[in-house]
Amino acid sequence: MIVVGTSGWQYRDWRGRFYPRGLPQRVWLEHFAAGFATVEVNNAFYRLPERDTFAAWRARTPADFCVAVKMSRYLTHIKRLRDPAEPVARFLDRATALGDRLGPVLLQLPPNLRADVEALDATLRLFPAQVRVAVEPRHPSWWTDATRAVLERRRAALVWADRLGRPVAPRWRTTDFGYLRLHEGRARPWPRYGRAALRSWVRRLTDDFGPDEPAYVYFNNDPGGAAVVDAVAFAALARRAGHPVSRVPTAAEAAGTDD
């Protein structure tokens, strides 16, 4: 199953595109969750929401909805993976209020954080086995056999990432689920993705993951509603190739022509 969504849902320039102009912002999550089956929450990186907020997201979304949550920058960018016990415990205490809506936890590492495999291992072992964790290193020193071995041992996914239609990380399969983030395409209008780039990522995912293994795909190119349009196009290409895909809005709903 390819599970397709976007990185966040609260973008003002989506009003009049994905969100009808008269739709109050307080119900945008409900509108989003009626179309998509997953979202990646980025604002937890900047300010970790209270447990009540996570519980409210669970109550406002359908039973088949999944929320991937980006780990607080306090652990990854301030502590830089050092002394992870308290930050991880605090994060889990709050995010687990999502209950069965909790999807993968994303650890995005700073681009200037050089490889520290022991610190990564110490962090990953703090997560319970039932919580999926995806790691997005961004310094080239991480691309070693030692890093791959830690991810495999801790059953964490290496994030596959794309910028301008090109992979920016190795395509290692390290566990039984995949995690792909698409940051910026080369098509017009910017930052859209072209069909050839999307088709390539469909092929890469389905070459490495079977139909019973979830592959989470999040479009992070939010300006102008590009993420919504591209997510819908990606899902259509995957279905056309015969692969199971989570629900997404129609093309008309994504483009804002059906409100």
UniProtKB/TrEMBL annotation:
Stated name of the protein: DUF72 domain-containing protein
Taxonomy, superkingdom: Bacteria
Parts forming coiled coils: none
Organism: Micromonospora parva
PANTHER family: DUF72 DOMAIN-CONTAINING PROTEIN, UNCHARACTERIZED PROTEIN YECE
InterPro entries: DUF72 (IPR002763), UPF0759_sf (IPR036520)
